[in-house]
TrEMBL record:
It comes from the Bacteria. InterPro entries: Aldolase_TIM, Coproporphyrinogen-III_oxidase, Elp3/MiaA/NifB-like_rSAM, rSAM, rSAM_sf. SUPFAM superfamilies: Radical SAM enzymes. This is Heme chaperone HemW. Residues 31-253 form the Radical SAM core domain. Keywords: Iron, Iron-sulfur, Metal-binding, S-adenosyl-L-methionine.
Length: 417
């Protein structure tokens, strides 16, 4: 598996040079001239820990959460005050963990952000179903949140049990969501669970729209090596059939595919913290992607706070891109939106996409992975499956290894991927 991603990396970057992440950081982050900049804030606290979850999280304690939010606000000012005036950004997303455990302080965080940034495309937050109460939704709406992403995983008891989850009661969700409306209400599901059928998945999607969602995200189950999950992975053929069936169902029932994993019932509904050209991340484990670098913050809450107390950036690892490496990052995350517009690529890099990756584009069309219309490439059903399939390798070879290391060491020396 590691071999496949390594060969692909060498081919696409036209180099044997690995992605080299080093224990170094820039105190000044060069984001002032980045267009299409998105923001992300990580809040790593949960009431209980789910066995399948790979994200950076820890058990909630009021005291630790409060110290963490104080540090988070200081990190925002540390980065934000590097530029004069206010920078226009696309969106702001809160992820976790369970960020609503700090619901009462979300406004304070947004206010800190708005001292340095002007948000033009709304503010999203990830929620656990237990957070969906009229009181919490009111607090979030008052704070300026416009998009919700609710981690349902499955409405069905048998799968909730398999995942060790409870708390997705349809009637109470529906009641709370109808009392406090939001522009986007997205619900997350995990698919390719043991013995899961198209009927199961279709029932979940129907239930989501019935409960008040206007957007769904369907994530294929990924078995991270460092989680305690004992769920077996579904076979390739079965997974493909399931993905094709649910994709067709969503499209036939009037949804549009807004990204590889997401379907929108209403045009204005969108929730994606990933498809941005550049982003700045704040908090533990938050990643930042700029023109020439990728950096990721420490996963340790205590080390994070300590760094911020010293007025230092909490970066654990930094990757300085070669131009081709940056192009691959760009294309990988842009393809996530299921379309690549060569004009955007050229505007970003100053070279035509065809000149850099003409052969790959021809191959993608020949193999039936992509179609070209009016100069824009869009992914076919087959392309979407193989993107999923490859993404699984990528996740296990890159993200799994990096997060696995960062969970063990707050500031590792270096990492080669
Ligand atoms: C940060 S998590 C969830 C937010 C919230 N804390 C919750 O539990 O509902 C974001 C989403 O990632 C997805 N996810 C988590 N672990 C996964 C795994 N092992 N494979 C695939 N998707 C996963 C889930 O759908 C989850 O809702
Ligand atoms: S799935 Fe959500 S609640 Fe469960 S551990 Fe992960 S972030 Fe926390």
């Amino acid at each position: 598996m590691h071999m496949i991603t390594e060969l692909t990396r060498m081919w696409l970057t036209r180099s044997t040079k690995p992605f080299l992440f080093k224990k170094e950081y820039d105190q000044e982050l060069p984001f002032s001239d980045c267009d299409g900049l998105g923001l992300y804030v990580h809040i790593p606290f949960c009431r209980s820990i789910c066995s399948f979850c790979p994200y950076c999280k820890t058990l909630y304690s009021e005291e630790a959460c409060s110290r963490y939010i104080d540090a988070l606000i200081r990190e925002i000012h540390l980065a934000g005050s590097q530029i004069p005036g206010k920078k226009i950004v696309t969106s702001l997303y809160f992820g976790g963990g369970t960020p609503a455990l700090a619901a009462d302080r979300i406004k304070e965080i947004i206010d800190a952000i708005q001292e340095h940034f002007i948000i033009t495309q709304g503010i999203g937050i990830e929620l656990h179903p237990e957070n969906i109460t009229p009181r919490t939704l009111h607090i979030l709406k008052e704070a300026g949140i416009t998009k919700l992403s609710i981690g349902i995983q499955s409405f069905q008891e048998k799968f909730q049990k398999l995942l060790g989850r409870t708390g997705a009661d349809m009637d109470s969700l529906k009641a709370a969501l109808s009392q406090v409306p939001f522009e986007t209400v997205s619900m997350d599901f995990i698919f390719a669970l043991p013995s899961q059928t198209f009927g199961d998945l279709k029932a979940d999607v129907d239930a989501a729209f019935e409960a008040g969602a206007n957007h769904v995200a369907l994530y294929p189950f990924i078995d991270f090596t460092f989680t305690d999950s004992v769920l077996p992975s579904m076979g390739k053929k079965e997974k493909r059939r399931l993905l094709d069936q649910i994709t067709r169902y969503c499209l036939e029932t009037g949804c549009t595919r807004s990204s590889i994993w997401t379907f929108a019932r209403e045009k204005h509904a969108s929730y994606s913290s990933m498809t941005r050209d550049n982003f700045l991340g704040f908090g533990c484990s938050a990643a930042t992607l700029l023109r020439d670098q990728f950096k990721i913050n420490t996963f340790s809450v205590e080390e994070y706070i300590r760094r911020i107390d010293q007025k230092k950036m909490p970066t654990a690892l930094t990757l300085r891109f070669t131009p081709r490496q940056r192009m691959i990052y760009y294309l990988f995350w842009t393809a996530y939106s299921t379309r690549v517009d060569p004009r955007d690529f050229e505007a970003f890099f100053g070279v035509p996409l065809k000149k850099m990756y003409g052969l790959e584009l021809r191959l993608a069309r020949l193999l039936g992975f992509a179609e070209e219309k009016d100069g824009v490439y869009s992914m076919t059903l087959k392309g979407a499956f193989y993107y999923h399939y490859y993404e699984n390798f990528y996740t296990l070879s890159y993200i799994d290894r990096m997060w696995g290391l960062l969970r063990k060491e707050a500031f590792p020396e270096q990492m080669e991927l």
